[in-house]
Amino acid sequence: MNEQVTIIALVDIIAALNVNSLEGNIYLMDNLRRKGSQGSGSSQLTTVVKGGYWCDGSQSYDIVLNWLTSSLNSMPQTLPRNYALKRSERIEGGALDTFGNPFDDEGDISNLSFLYPQISGITGQAVDEGVIFPAQYGTPIGLKNGWYWSATVDTNKTGIFSYTLHVVLYAKEKNCWIPVKMTHEAKIEITNEAQRNGFTNVGIGLLPLV
User: Fold this and answer.
1) Are 15 and 22 within 8 A, CB to CB?
2) In the chain, what are the domains?
């Protein structure tokens, strides 16, 4: 059985484009904070993965990481994927603001609804050393914008490893969206520490009989 781990990358697109850097303008968080992940909600996230093992030390199941992106400067992702396109066609105005109204190219850029950031690849130490095995998958789920990156984890390789997210932002220039490529480094820590169970709040041992 696979354990699914979600890592959210929330980007302040305007701030990142202003300084041409994601440092301090990307906020990473995962659903493993209670298991020890560090830096949740900041640019410096270390995802802590505790592998599952049999009593002989062999790996009992896979851990799967899933990366999702979001933006501080866009309309909610809960809207249908084709909302912006159909809305812009009706008003013949091209881009929209964060309220779904036509955006004036001469208006305040902070009101523009930017295209969502996209992850274009995952590289770095963790990939080179065979700790994670990333791949891109298609999905009909709107919140994932049609595509998402996932990776299985080799939990037999314990330690702290870095990986690099390759992120594409889109800057607005008149009637065009211009892709801007950026990178950001995060970390994964793999430990073979026994996980605590929900019955006794301890690690390996017999479960209570009721």
Assistant:
1) no
2) 3-74+114-191 (2.60.40.3910), 78-108 (no CATH)
Tokens matching residue 78? 């809960």
Strands 176-191 and 46-50: parallel
Rounded to an integer, what distance in angstroms lies between the CA atom of residue 131 and that of residue 162? 10
185: CB partners within 8 A, 6+ apart: 124, 162, 163, 164, 165
For the entire predicted model, the pTM comes to 0.80
Sign of the alpha-carbon dihedral angle for 12, 17, 23, 28: positive
Selection from 118, 116, 119, 106 nearest residue 175 by Cα = 106
Q: What does the block give as tokens for 87?
A: 């809305």
pLDDT at 25 over 90: yes
pLDDT tens digits for 71-129? 998 877 776 656 655 555 554 546 787 777 778 777 788 888 888 899 999 999 999 99
- In 3-state terms, what secondary structure has residue 127? helix
